[in-house]
Design goal:
The protein is an alpha/beta fold and 144 residues long. It contains five helices and five strands.
């Protein structure tokens, strides 16, 4: 596994590629805890290969130790379905999935809506500008 870290607009983008293996995981965990602790992080996973339960177990353990020690949200971009299924079980809190690095970056600047605040019929993704638009429309122009 190869990991390249780049800081963009105050957000760390970690591009992961290759095959997961036990040898790289200790180094990955150490780098996450040393350099990415309590930072906004996006893991770009487009080129990361799922190689079975052994590799993913160590990878999830590394991410879990990182997520549990940080109060920041972590975003995943281009996570394959096999990763998402496992992440949903072990990392459900403070994680989100996106189809582009740009959307993942934007999400760090949007207000977060907890499950308790969300009405049952609301979509998971909220339009952050709807409230602003609603407030800026004069009442005599509504419905025009």
């Amino acid at each position: 596994m190869d990991a390249k870290i780049k800081k963009e607009s105050g957000i760390h983008v970690v591009t992961l590629s290759g095959r997961l293996n036990h040898d790289a995981i200790d180094s990955f965990r150490s780098i996450c805890l040393r350099y990415l602790y309590n930072e906004d992080v996006i893991f770009q996973m487009k080129e990361l290969d799922f190689v079975g339960s052994t590799g993913i177990t160590f990878f999830v353990d590394a991410l879990k130790s990182f997520v549990e020690k940080s109060d920041k949200k972590i975003n995943f971009v281009h996570a394959k379905s096999e990763f998402m299924k496992i992440f949903d079980v072990h990392l459900a809190f403070n994680t989100s999935y996106y189809s582009s690095v740009e959307m993942a970056k934007v999400s760090f600047f949007l207000p977060q809506i907890s499950a308790e605040q969300r009405a049952p019929s609301q979509e998971v993704f909220q339009d952050p500008f709807r409230e602003i638009l609603d407030e800026s429309i004069p009442s005599d122009l509504e419905g025009v």
